[in-house]
Amino acid sequence: MSSEPTTHHRKTWSAAPVGFFEAEAAGLRWLAEPQDHGGTPVVEVHDVGPDHIDLTRLQSSRPTAEAAEALGRGLAVTHGAGAPAFGSPAAGWTGDAWIGRQPQTNDPTGSWGLFYAEQRVRPFVRRALDRGHLDAAGARVVDRACDRLSAGDFDDDRPPARIHGDLWSGNVLFTPDGAVLIDPAAHGGHGLTDLAMLALFGCPGLGRLEAAYAEAAGLADGWRDLIPLHQLHPLATHASSHGPAYAAPLVEAALAFS
Question: Average pLDDT of 99-118?
Fold first, then answer.
């Protein structure tokens, strides 16, 4: 990684797959569209190429409760801007997709549960199993939860949301002007998925953020009970890439829904 002087920050990867940085740029621009209507601020893209992306250099600042609340309200607006379908890619992008450097798919799907099970959880469970990071018994538990997801047992009446898709705390930068989003895996999904990743890996002011989001998004009672379901994807992703330490929490999260 390297950076340009003055106001730009350059991310580089000489071995980037075709479309890697273009997909990131499309996701950032798509997430930025609701900013003028109260959506969460998103880092600005200045240039993109096969092996790099140039972004506005951000100044970090101490997180505050007010910034966390604003992030919660802003996320509700960003999510509410919507997407054409569950699994739809960012506007202007039709190629491959990634979370971090791991490939995943963004194929538009009629229901959230079917998309989430088949494109977000099961592929990473198979990789974790193949790499010896998850045993067969654990994989069966997660598969049972995926069977229920695919059958629509956890679908609700909320339309596809415009989500960040990789919203751990490292992809939220607190600046003097508030929180700014970076490094998305943007797609049409369920808003709770972004909240679930923030909850899984921690975020400053999480309680204030969640309360502000729940009020602004009009979440139904009991939404917190579904957070572990929405953590299956990041847990499976990390079980695949980071090793067996994530297998136990993955299976534990799936047990309640299998």
Answer: 97
